[in-house]
Amino acid sequence: MFSHQLVKEANPILEAIFDHPFVKGIGDGHVDDAALKFYVQQDFQYLSEFIKIYASIIPILKDRENMKFFAENIDFILNSEIHPHHVFCDIANVTYESLQHATPSPKAYLYQSHMYRAVRTGSLANIICALLPCPWTYNEIAKQLTATGKNTADNPFKSWIDFYLTDDEDADGGLTQKLFKMLNELSKDMSEEEINEAKGFFLKSTELEWEFWEQAFYQQDWRFTEIIHGGDNHE
Ligand SMILES: Cc1ncc(C[n+]2csc(CCO)c2C)c(N)n1
């Protein structure tokens, strides 16, 4: 099955995500404030783009059930995904509002551009492959942290882990499985070339998830950010 192939090939990248100091820090209950702030600034901005990508899928869908599914996911990102951000803000002792005006860092820019590239191909499989590592890796992180005994009552990140752990219909676990199922269906009518193209989108997005943790941990912004972003806030 296509989904098994994707998970198998991406596995070393997922393992590297589990080993990343930011993710390990979530498990151990400590991440530097500067890393948490950089993450929320970039993620707030990233999720706004993610919503637009979800919206851009709707015109290429053929049935209402799928339209409902993607529309509900937009609602979920807008209204529920803010919870994990609040957890980071509370720990870093900053207001969420103060972190909502960032422009994309190089890696966030690359990740967003990668997703838009998938949209431009017009292929639903490519778009789902580019999107899926986002809910997939987070759900896997939450499961791994829980399985290794890190999701404890005294961990300040407990409610962040719990958020991505939930596996009910409306939450990420359910979403991940549904997207993998859609891919398995689509792959039945795809050529080897199309399968490889879609896989490329999935594997690159998985690495870009790793890069997202990395850039937040080391606060990697544009080298010439003053020049690039100037006084006005262009993207
Ligand atoms: C860089 C980055 N990657 C993944 C997530 C997690 N996430 C974002 S939207 C969503 C639901 C998808 O419909 C999930 C699980 C994040 N916050 N930031």
From TrEMBL:
Gene3D superfamilies, alphabetized: Heme oxygenase-like
InterPro entries per UniProt: Haem_Oase-like_multi-hlx (IPR016084), Thiaminase-2/PQQC (IPR004305), Thiaminase_II (IPR027574), Thiamine_Salvage_TenA (IPR050967)
Pathway terms, separated by semicolons: Cofactor biosynthesis; thiamine diphosphate biosynthesis
SUPFAM superfamilies cross-referenced by the UniProt entry: Heme oxygenase-like
UniProt keyword annotation of Metal-binding present: no
Tagged with keyword Lipid biosynthesis: no
Family named by the database record: Belongs to the TenA family.
Annotated NCBIfam families: salvage_TenA
PANTHER family linked to this entry: BIFUNCTIONAL TH2 PROTEIN, SI:CH1073-67J19.1-RELATED
Protein name: Aminopyrimidine aminohydrolase
Gene source species: Apilactobacillus nanyangensis
